[in-house]
Amino acid sequence: MRVALALLAVVATVLPVRAARPVRVGDALCVAWSGPPLLALPDDLRDAYLGALGDAGWRLLRTDFTWSAIEPTPGQRDFTAYDALVAQAKRHRIRLLGLLDYGNPWASAAAPPGDDGYPPDDPGTFAAFAAAAARRYRGRIPAWEVWNEPNNGLSGFWKPQPDPAAYARLAVAAARAIHRADRRATVVSGGLAPTLDFLGTGKDWGFVTAADAAVPRWLRSFDAAAFHPYSFLQAPAPETDSGPFGPTLVQQIADFRARVQETHTFHLPLWITELGWHTAADSGTPGFPPGVSEEDQARYLVRAWTLALAAGAERVCWYTATDRPGAEHDKEAAFGLFRYQAAAGPLDPKPAFTAARVFAQLLARTRYSRDLRATYHLPDDAWALCFAKGRQLVIVLWSTRPTGYDLSTTLASHVRSARVVTMDGRSTELDPKQPVSLVLGPSPVYLVVSGGA
Asked: Which of 139, 164, 246, 374 lies 20 to 30 angstroms, CA to CA, from 450?
């Protein structure tokens, strides 16, 4: 099927349709990297990774500030390792989203020695730690997230089992303490795991409203609300609807926004602080399917980031920067943009890193403009989402149709230049006076147009 359209209709309607101005794409691009493996890297190898991320234009890094590691004894805090990381990241123009987690064995009577999965008996002890971190890095760390996946009982992040009321009390205490320590810091609620709440509350992200029932208006202590909209069992494409336990990425964003609004907290920015697809041939986890191919991982990165930004997410963090040992047989070790290596040397990027770099190069200065699927009369399995900066448009196009989808468009007479860029960065200049024919497939392409109104 072929559709002939004039790009004039596009350049005449590039203004955003939402009331709030969409975020600048470069500000939204983020990588989530667990603190223990990050800090354990040799300094030169960590520097190489940070340099690669910074040069690629992904300049926000979410990483753990682990309470039990920083304060193993009450009142005796050691931030030395984090001081070095903050300075190292700054050299590569990378900002940190500090993830404050988890419990501390000395702060919980129920915690066995060495187990930091139990929250503190007194939320004030965690709030004091959060305030100390915010004061120390005031002006250097712009944002803090309070805990990671407190609703995830399977991973043991809040033992003995998730408790929305207890989390809300701790989170509010910590958020207020951080704001007192650094009035300019952005404080984000703990990113919630997907689908798990459906079992207990009958709806996705029900943890949010359960917390609000115990501590009314608790989210009003925060500057943003975070969640982790992984696809079902971390395998299907972002556009795939796998039923109530695995809706599409856009549906998950809409559901989370609805839960936030049920707390009567309106216009709160939404941050996706983890999202990704692993490439392990054997997931290593019972019930979980194998990972995706490296090519599909790259495709899903571009498609997911495009969809999330179009749906209004203010930050989107890829999980994670690099694979870890055992990436062939452990899904948790195989989400990286780079393949695992133990020592410094030439980095080994996966296709997803190349796709991330091209995405940043083309879109970093733009903002989401509008959905052009209706303008192009596209079917349900094809997408055309437009980003704009001044007189330049970047339209991200793809189709999940197995046979592909043929699209033909004619450029407006005042367009000065146009080119098509593939997901891996290959660019083809177009003659603005000639029709453009594109075959849309699973690998997104970018139509870059200059000279629009």
From this structure: 374
